[in-house]
Amino acid sequence: MAEEEMKVIIGLEVHCQLDTKSKLFCGCSADFRADAPNTHVCPVCLGLPGALPVLNKKAIEYALKVAKALNCTIPEEGEFCRKNYFYPDLVKAYQITMGDNPLALGGYIEIEDDAGNPKTVNLTRIHVEEDPGRLVHMGNKERGHYTLVDYNRSGIPLIEMVTEPELSSPKEARRLLNKLRATLEYLDVFDPEKEGSIRVDANISIQGHERVEIKNISSYKGVEKALTFEITRQKNLIRRGGTIVRETRHFQEGKGTTTSARSKETATDYRYFPEPDLPVIRVADWVKDIILPELPDARRDRFMQQYGIAVNHARTLTGDLRLAEFYESVADVGPAIAASWIADILIGELNYRDMALGTVASHTSEFKDLIVLVRDKKITDKAGVEVLRVWLDDLHAGTKKETPAQIVERLGLARESGESFRGIVEQILAANPQAVADHKAGKKGALNFIVGQVMKETKGKSDPREIHAMIAELVGE
Ligand code: ZN
Ligand code: MN
After folding, report:
1. Ligand 1 centroid to residue 89 C-alpha, Å
2. pTM (two decimals)
3. Most buried of 88, 105, 118, 153 (most Cβ within 10 A)?
4. 182 C-alpha to ligand 1 centroid (Å)
5. pLDDT in tens, 374-408
6. How far is the CA of 45 from the centre of ligand 1 (A)?
């Protein structure tokens, strides 16, 4: 089968922890990560005999916010049910989840496809369920292989979102998750910084062949990597005339590969039945009281309107709530220059250092001073980046004592007018007669070579446009 006929089909099941104070069916604190194992537990979340679940309304309210923000249809009633299976992390040998009557149906998320065009990805449903405990595997296969169980996570509220199989590439899957994360953050119902707060199962197939499910991928990068590996594996197998079997596979984060786990269960294996200890929830009355905040797409459109910035900048800046807020606190130095310094320069420098935006946000006025130095032509763009790097290095190391202006002063980066470089320009022209001749002969690149030599000699303190003009004048154009 030809490459272009191998169409990739991907659907996701995304589990996100709702950032409530207490668990879904008991009063145990959901803020457990800093505490010792099995210290946030009670008879309900340990599944002791006779313990009864009491629904945390906040979790339902949060889930309804998500459903409304993702354009879902919300039926009048939702019903919890039991999904039966045994696993050591599941204390009751069943999970309280939702079956035929979930909280929300349909809905969609808007992303861009790999060509940059808008694409709507439809959702199948959203429901609420409890998180199982956490298993910690100790030792290795040869020696001391055993598993510890921590029930602090048992009963943490989750929303499970299922997309239709409409994604066509690992990058699209990544963009969908980024959009989802941004939306949940804007809604203030989810904390993406918490370890394990999002887990993804991905269904993937090549059109015309069986599908494979990859279970429990716990990072955004992991989803893209697992899908990329799996597409290659399936395509190679098909090319060699093999058959894709319907199965569940696990993703090995470290190796970036997937391995076969077991054949896929079907819904009937779980013997779903209505949860007798919880009433049907009537959500119709709650829904109309839910007021949504400004969401990422609306904010992107507002940024373009209000600040006159380009769509790619607006999209980047609104893709993360904290980044959007930071931009708005900086924009008064000049919306365009602020957008480009944050989206094109700062983000990359932060990623390179693995630094959080918060560190810079707590020194916003100094960051603005730096942009103003560039805006007012006190330093060149190139010098500005150099100052930013020194400033960030110091902030990151916790040794910051200098303001951007002081760094400019110490490193002697203040921009000087082109005239003060006339001597240097003349020297370089004299030293490169061939390049001058090439330039006069209209050879492309010759002028850039000369300008580059001057920039190097003046250590970024000169403005390339001024140097261009001066060279043009000196070579007599
Ligand atoms: Zn509990
Ligand atoms: Mn689930």
Report:
1. 14
2. 0.85
3. 153
4. 30
5. 999 899 898 999 999 999 999 999 988 899 999 99
6. 4
